[in-house]
Amino acid sequence: MLHPAPTTKIDPKLARGVLEEVLPATATKPAYAVISFPNTSYRVHLEPVGEITGKPGKTIVGTIRARAKRIDTCATGGKFIDPVFGRPRRVQGSIVAIEGDWVVVNAGMPVYCQPTAPGQSASHFAVGQFVSMGVEGGTSFEQVSA
Questions:
Q1: Structural domain that includes position 102
Q2: Is there a contact between 56 and 102 (Cβ–Cβ < 8 Å)?
Q3: Rounded to an integer, what distance in angstroms lies between the CA atom of residue 123 and that of residue 125?
Q4: Which pTM value belongs to this model?
Q5: Residue 1 belongs to some domain of the structure
Q6: Tens of each residue's pLDDT in the chain, 146 residues
Q7: Structurally, how many domains does the chain consist of?
Q8: Is 131 inside a domain boundary?
């Protein structure tokens, strides 16, 4: 069953999810936090920036940051992060803000995306555009509150 969506307004550039677990680094994989999002099936694996002080099963708020391989504008489709379980590989949604060299995309949850393709920068995009991109490994989560 889906949980009720949160009703308290927060900054639309912050992601609010439920901390499922924090797993330590292994010989082949960096440490990562598993975060789910209300009213979705997402269980996204994100590398923590700093300490995650939230408790498993509790709400956590922070910023998600990814490095975009190339950002393309598109006219159709929905907002999503692919895959539903695991580390993000693809992000699609509408731009809600541009901060410095970061494009903030509403992909069901806000994701700061930094363009890395030659000749691309955040200034080439505008708020409201619908975009799609592949993202590099190492998508991170920085907690701002628990």
A1: 15-145
A2: no
A3: 5
A4: 0.92
A5: no
A6: 445 656 677 888 999 999 999 999 999 999 999 999 988 899 999 999 999 999 999 999 999 999 999 999 998 889 999 999 999 999 999 999 999 999 999 999 999 999 999 999 999 999 999 999 999 999 999 999 76
A7: 1
A8: yes
